[in-house]
């Protein structure tokens, strides 16, 4: 069992590193969705059972054998040999307890953080609509759109969503969050956190989790752009930048790291992937998954050792950890069978590698769990009396704190007097004073007369400006009228002069001269009509 767990943790770590190496080329050539699907490889290896006995061992299986990992974990020697050569310190129990405690603490911290985040987002939230099971709400605590909730899905929008985003950006931002719910990304995130809890002490797993979240966002971006078209990439890029600015909970949906934002914005210009390339991408992901599982599978030796080692792991006595803390450390002594003072005592079982040391002449000391628990001494004692509170600390220090009375509270609240009245030439005046009891008095006077005078002066200035503008307009109209009359007089003078010259010109044919004089007379009549 121990060897299988070790091989599984090593294999999943190697596969995480492999996915981090392949994710960028796969996203560039086959699309962000194919890169996101690569992350199923570590999860599939985590739940992969051992190979049957008639299957050849994998390369990882052979490498683990060569480095001697089974011997280090106690799988290479018989259980009886390990029991007789064991150390007095329960290393196996300590390591298992440390790993399990770290995993439990990680899961508790994640659950508490999500509960706090959900409570924070729903405080003061307003329901604005529903799309099937998904509820759309606005929250004053959200700085950008985000999705949360698996059983009760939510899409939360900031209070200023309609002001910061235009109509196209709003539709695309909501479509992004809706895609998270429809694709099951939030459930996948819970599974990824569970895998990260198992690898809580593995730095490669933490780096891989951040890369997984970045690929998830890029795949969701690609899906939104496939719905709205590549020509809307610039609008969607603006929505991403607005959503990423000033977020308080980065892990909820969008990633605010600069590198992640650069990758997402770069993806917007290269998201069109043909159907043929998508098919090749799915085939490549399946091939990589099958190859990775085959190269890292646990072989038949791990299956054979699981039966023998499981007995030892399941028989681990975790009470030795408490005994290790409560009893003084002693050197490893002889087993019970070697103590001459107790010849009738049976020898210790061969499966227990850490027999408890027994001193021949010392009296029996009761176990730690047989001692009655001692109630803890409170470090601080608080005693409330009529007008004060006494605090007694564990070191004997005593502090007395006075409880404010109604009069003290009344002195803390200032008396505000707001009335109409004029004091000086200002529209409003404010003064503050403190009486003999220490209470503040704030006096505010609003001068309505000064406000009315200021309003009248503003109205008079506006009327004077309007009058000046009207006079200027009248003067401009008069000047234009004079200019028009002068133009008419000049035109009449020119037409009369031309008519006289044509009438005197006897060299012109009579018909042409008559027609020209008729046209000039008609023009002169029209100008006179305009003057009238």
From TrEMBL:
Domain Peptidase M56: 7-268
Residues in the signal sequence: none
Keywords: Membrane, Transmembrane, Transmembrane helix
Residues spanning the membrane: 6-22, 29-48, 96-115, 186-209, 278-297
Coiled coil: none
Recorded superkingdom: Bacteria
InterPro entries for the chain: Beta-lactam_resp_regulator (IPR052173), Peptidase_M56 (IPR008756)
Protein name per its UniProtKB record: M56 family metallopeptidase
Protein source organism: Sphingobium cyanobacteriorum
Source taxonomy: Bacteria, Pseudomonadati, Pseudomonadota, Alphaproteobacteria, Sphingomonadales
